[in-house]
TrEMBL record, chain A:
It comes from Scleropages formosus (Asian bonytongue). GO terms for cellular component: endoplasmic reticulum membrane. The keyword Transmembrane applies. Keywords: Endoplasmic reticulum, Membrane, Transmembrane, Transmembrane helix. This is ER membrane protein complex subunit 4. The keyword Transit peptide does not apply.
From TrEMBL, chain B:
It comes from the Eukaryota. Residues 1-20 form the signal peptide. SUPFAM superfamilies: Quinoprotein alcohol dehydrogenase-like (SSF50998). It comes from Scleropages formosus (Asian bonytongue). Residues 757-962 form the ER membrane protein complex subunit 1 C-terminal domain. The gene is EMC1. This is ER membrane protein complex subunit 1. The keyword Repressor does not apply.
Length: 190, 963
């Protein structure tokens, strides 16, 4: 058992000795295929030098085909239906987070409200994305509806959490004290 | 289970409300001053050199001991208020202060060093006449108490009665004095008006009447037409002064056959003045001195001597206001207070034996020009090392100030005992400092060019900066000094409003007619002003006409003083900050004034208009400039006032006409033969209500009925029988006279304490059936709809409010009650309840809420309503004055401060206590123990860490780019 440990130690020592060898400040390599540590990067590229612009990977065929068009259509529908697909998930989160006002439900609601709003704000960019599709308008409307539904859900959540100023009590603080029409005073006869 | 839950909720609420004072906060925001009242009797304890004390008995039924060096109280024993505890006399011997209280009801002996009760004896019934210490064989052993029909002798050591004897012919003879001179006899002197003197001699050992003498023979009857003033002088010689014949009568008591002598003195008596005799008996076991004072006029005294049955004047003192004898060792001296000039008096000592003036014994007393004249003089004489007589004097002036002076006129201390009887008070904001006022003034002025404005702005900012640097420097300078040396001297010159307006001027009006200006932070009296010729039963009403907000106009307070006898009133207008009488001349009021009314109208000098209603229901305005009269004419139809005549049970409402006459518009009569009106309370004029309604559990609003003209009238039944007595509460609109609500509490009795604020009325009464104190709260709501949210007019409110009421049991009786008040009315309200124990309880209004449900529901929990519990708790953490009891608390005054969370409270009674309360805790102030060092070091640390890491990140990026 003691022997291999000793061997290991020897190895470690030798490596340290190798690291300790003096490095040159700079070196000009004229020959190829040198196995020195400095030339590791070059050696990984292979032994041969390729001309500029040469790539050893094959270049894909970029010409549009019929199958790709279907793919684009599908991809666009994915984008358009994205917000609608979020809704069941949101509903589940809503249900889970409850109606108490604490940091987590608030964060959830904020996220839920923020995402559709953000999407609605960058509507033109999304439309540009859908430009290539033939059912561009339908997809756009579906996308819009999805986002509107998402924000409606967020508003509903706010409402159920009592964050919307929909009750008279929410405006109570803004009621000014009424002006007094009569001045009155007096008291017990002194 | 539900019960347990409600209990838990309740406990939780209670815990969250706990707000007691921390140990290190004691005395930081609060102070208490203890008073004793007007001194009736004073004695100096002088038997031992080490423990010198001043024993006092006062008109507030207090026996107290003062430290003569500082004027602080050593101890104070407070008896019942009123005639039951009235101190009839105070006798002092050795370590015992013997007191007769309650018109001869009790005889008590107090131990003078610690104020412990030695003994107490219940005396036989009968009105008290006189008490005297009786000594035999050079030691004082007994106290003799003379009552209308009896005389009794008690042991001084334990109070036990040695004997009691009935006096003969007590229905015809007016006994007035009891006297002993160290022998075995006790003399009781009496007068039969228009007839003769009666002298009865008792044997001290067994109370046997040894002789009874009717001295009809000696004194001619016309001498005794008026009750003669008699005292005993020298070796048992009775001296009586008679005003009609200008002569003195002498009668030796001890001789077998008394022969009266008459000696007329060629002294002139002041007109209509009853001569007064003043003698001294330094030791009760020895006969009195042969020298005595005879007062012949308000400022005329004569020192007389009796020798060999002959009276001879020793010295004539004129002018001399007050005289007094003092004894030290074997020497007896006479002290005479005589006026020096307008503002000073001097006290000199004279040898009692010869009437010679003692050298270097003059004490000059400088009288406060705003104070009263000296009224009483108590002298404490002592022997100096060189055997000459030194002395200290205690002078009491008309304004109940007691001053202790020592030679040669140095004031050792002064006590303002008038403050033991504060009648009413106001708190006034302090003025801004010069620089602050400068800044304020800048905005008020008209613009005079852009460049000039900029320059002015810059210069004022520079002044502010300068002031700030000076302040910082002072802070730094003070920080180096030990804490004890740093004194924050408050003087009238350095008074300035602080950042949060927490320091105010307390203007206090006392029953004696003395006004005080007290700094609310330190409790120091900054000014005082004595109003002479104020009748003792006068009624005061203090009003702030102009606050300090109208620089450069000085603030102005007006005190209405009404004499109860004549009904005539006078106005005293003064500056509440400096106490000086204002140069504004108040109107002369020729007719009795019934009430006053401070209008929110202002004249061109920003002083509010005060209306005074006289007994012909005519109105006088003050100030009454043209501007004011014009405004009044415009506003007249909107000005209403009400008068309550408790004796006739009549409430009447009046409206002002344009010509300043009035017309009666309503009248409510509460039959005085059934019930009497005990209290009428409106709302405070400076009260703000932030929230116009209450949020319910379902998030709808229940709007409060905030009628500013609402009056709460409380009546008590005349019949006080337990079964038939009742308490009535009426809510009446003061403009229309409409009775909004009436409630009758059957089997209830007063005294009733009432607080009326916002939309609620809280009152406390005695439930005669269950024999307990109860609180009842009335709350008024308009409903879920507001009738008119912009204006409130009592003339246009067709719907009656919903009234909710709930009652609670309170475990203690109460002395007074007031509600907290804050600047904007956002902070929740507390009730401040003064208890007879001297504690002041801060009771959250939350507990007095008629909407408290019997069973907690989801909605009520949402509303934070505590489930109803009939018992109201008293928690010791709610005592805002921890152990600083306020004895006989009579009133609590609350004032808002600049901080919304903070309310300033002053409780006054026998003591004065000032503190701050935070009903919703200090939500707008950093905590006292806020760790500024930690927070700032963390901030700075983070800041530097960001800087360093930014630099490091830059270096790292650069390095990576180089790679």
């Amino acid at each position: 058992n003691a022997v291999p440990t000793g061997g290991m130690e020897e190895v470690a020592v030798s490596t340290r000795g190798g690291g300790g060898t003096r490095r040159m400040k700079w070196a000009l390599e004229l020959s190829l295929g040198n196995t020195r540590s400095r030339g590791d990067r070059q050696s990984s590229q292979g032994d041969t030098l390729y001309p500029i612009g040469y790539s050893d990977k094959p270049v894909p065929d970029t010409s549009v085909q019929e199958a790709d068009r279907n793919l684009v259509e599908k991809r666009c529908w994915d984008v358009a239906l994205g917000p609608l697909k979020q809704i069941p998930m949101n509903l589940f989160i809503m249900y889970m987070s409850g109606n108490t006002i604490s940091i987590f439900p608030i964060m959830m609601v904020c996220m839920m409200a923020w995402r559709p709003i953000q999407a609605l704000m960058s509507l033109s960019a999304t439309f540009k994305l859908l430009e290539s599709s033939s059912q561009q308008w339908l997809q756009g409307i579906v996308y819009l509806i999805g986002n509107l539904l998402g924000s409606a859900l967020a508003i509903y959540k706010c409402q159920s959490m009592g964050l919307l100023p929909t009750h008279s009590s929410d405006w109570l603080a803004f009621i000014e004290p009424p002006q007094r029409m009569e001045i009155m005073g007096g008291g017990m006869v002194l | 289970m539900a019960n347990l839950r409600t209990c838990l909720a309740f406990l939780f609420l209670c815990c969250s409300l706990c707000d007691a004072v921390y140990e290190d906060q004691v005395g930081k925001f609060d102070w208490r001053q203890q008073y004793v009242g007007k001194v009736l009797f004073a004695h100096f304890e002088s038997h031992s050199q080490a423990s010198k004390k001043l024993i006092l008995a006062t008109d507030k039924n207090i026996v107290a001991s003062l430290n003569p060096r500082t004027g602080d109280l050593f101890w104070r024993q407070v008896d019942k208020a009123g005639p039951e505890g009235h101190i009839d006399t105070l006798l002092f011997h050795g370590q015992d202060a013997v007191v007769v209280t309650g018109n001869g009801r009790l005889l008590r002996s107090w131990e003078s060093s610690v104020g412990a009760l030695n003994w107490e004896m219940l005396l036989d019934p009968g009105s008290f006449l006189a008490a005297v210490l009786v000594g035999t064989q050079d030691s004082v052993k007994f106290v003799a108490v003379l009552k209308k029909a009896t005389v009794s002798l008690h042991y001084l050591s334990n109070g036990h009665q040695k004997w009691t004897e009935t006096l003969p012919d007590s229905d015809t003879v007016h006994y007035q004095a009891v006297y002993s001179s160290g022998g075995s006899q006790l003399f009781v002197l009496g007068v039969v008006p228009h007839s003769h003197l009666s002298i009865i001699t008792f044997n001290i050992e067994d109370g046997e009447i040894t002789s009874q003498c009717n001295s009809a023979v000696c004194f001619s009857s016309e001498v005794l037409v008026i009750q003669a003033r008699c005292t005993v002088v020298g070796q048992g010689v009775l001296i009586c002064a008679d005003a009609s014949t200008l002569s003195l009568y002498m009668l030796p008591l001890s001789s077998e056959e008394p022969v009266g002598l008459q000696q007329s003195l060629d002294l002139d008596l002041a007109l209509g003045f009853q001569p007064v005799l003043l003698t001294t008996q330094p030791n009760p076991a020895r006969p009195p001195l042969a020298q005595f004072f005879l007062q012949l006029g308000p400022d005329h005294h004569v020192l007389l001597q009796l020798s060999d049955g002959h009276l001879s004047p020793l010295r004539d003192f004129q002018p001399a206001f007050l005289v007094s004898f003092a004894t030290t060792g074997e020497k007896t001296v006479a002290a005479v207070l005589s006026p020096k000039n307008e503002t000073a008096c001097s006290v000199s000592l004279y040898s009692a034996d010869s009437g010679r003036r003692l050298l270097d014994t003059t004490v000059t007393i400088h009288l406060d020009p705003n104070g009263g004249k000296p009224e009483k003089l108590y002298v404490h004489a002592f022997l100096k090392k060189d055997d000459s007589v030194g002395y200290r004097v205690l002078v009491q002036t008309e304004d109940h100030t007691i001053t202790f002076l020592q030679q040669p006129g140095r004031i050792v201390w002064t006590r303002e005992e008038a403050l033991a009887d504060v009648v009413t008070m106001e708190m006034v904001d302090l003025p801004l400092t010069g620089t602050q006022a400068e800044l304020e003034g800048e905005f008020g002025k008209k613009a005079d060019g852009l460049a000039a404005m900029v320059l002015k702005r810059l210069s004022s900012q520079l002044i502010l900066l300068q002031a700030w640097i000076a302040h910082l420097w002072k802070l730094f300078y003070d920080a180096r000094k030990p804490r004890s040396q740093v004194k924050n001297e408050v003087t009238i010159e350095t008074l300035a409003r602080d950042e949060f307006n927490l320091q105010k001027m307390m203007v206090m009006v006392t029953a004696s007619g003395k006004l005080f200006g007290i700094d609310s932070k330190s409790g120091m009296v900054l000014w005082k002003h004595y109003l002479r010729n104020v009748q003792p039963n006068a009624v005061f009403k203090l009003m702030v006409q102009r606050t300090t907000a109208h620089f450069p106009h000085p603030p102005q307070c007006t005190l209405l003083i009404k004499d109860k006898e004549t009904g005539l009133a006078a106005l005293h207008v003064f500056n509440p900050i400096f106490g000086k009488k204002s140069h504004v001349t108040p109107p002369t009021l020729s007719r009795p004034v019934l009430q006053s009314l401070l209008l929110p109208l202002m004249d061109q000098d920003y002083s509010k208009v005060l209306l005074l209603i006289d007994d012909e229901y005519k109105v006088t305005a003050f100030p009454s400039t043209k501007n004011v009269l014009q405004q009044l004419q415009e506003m007249a139809s909107a000005i209403y006032f009400f008068l309550v005549d408790a004796s006739q049970g009549k409430l009447s409402g009046f409206r002002l006409r344009k010509d300043l006459s009035t017309e009666l518009i309503w009248e409510v009569v509460i039959p005085p033969e059934v019930q009497k009106i005990v209290a009428v309370k409106g709302k405070r004029a400076n009260e703000h209500v932030h929230s116009q309604g209450r949020v319910m559990g379902d998030r709808s609003v229940l709007y409060k009925y905030l009628n500013p003209n609402l009056l709460a009238v409380v009546t008590e039944s005349v019949d006080t029988h337990q079964e038939r007595s009742f308490v009535g509460v009426f809510l009446i609109d003061g403009v229309t006279g409409r009775i909004i609500h009436e409630a009758v509490q059957r089997k209830a009795r007063g005294p009733i304490h009432l607080v009326h604020s916002e939309n609620w009325v809280v009152y406390e009464y005695w439930n005669a059936k269950s024999r307990r104190n109860e609180f009842s709260v009335l709350e008024l709501f308009e409903g879920t709809e507001l009738y008119n949210s912009t204006v409130f007019s009592s003339l246009d409110r067709p719907h009656l409010p919903q009234v909710l009421q709930q009652s609670y049991i309170f475990p203690s009786s109460i002395s007074t009650m007031e509600a907290t008040l804050t600047e904007k009315g956002i902070t929740s309200r507390h009730l401040l309840v003064g208890l007879p124990s001297g504690a002041i309880l801060s009771l959250p209004k939350m507990f007095l809420d008629p909407r408290r449900p019997e069973m907690a529901t989801e909605q009520s929990r949402e509303e934070n309503l505590i489930p109803y519990a009939p018992e109201m708790p008293i928690r010791t953490e709610w005592f805002i004055n921890y152990n600083q009891s306020v004895t006989r608390v009579r009133g609590i005054y609350t004032a808002p401060s600049g901080l919304e969370s903070t309310c300033l409270v002053v409780a006054y009674g026998l003591d004065i206590f000032q503190t701050r309360v935070y009903p919703s805790k200090q939500f707008d102030v950093l905590k006292d123990d806020y760790d500024y060092v930690l927070i700032s070091s963390v901030l700075f640390g983070l800041f530097f860490a960001t800087m360093i890491s930014k630099r490091l990140a830059q270096v790292k990026l650069l390095n990576r780019a180089w790679r």
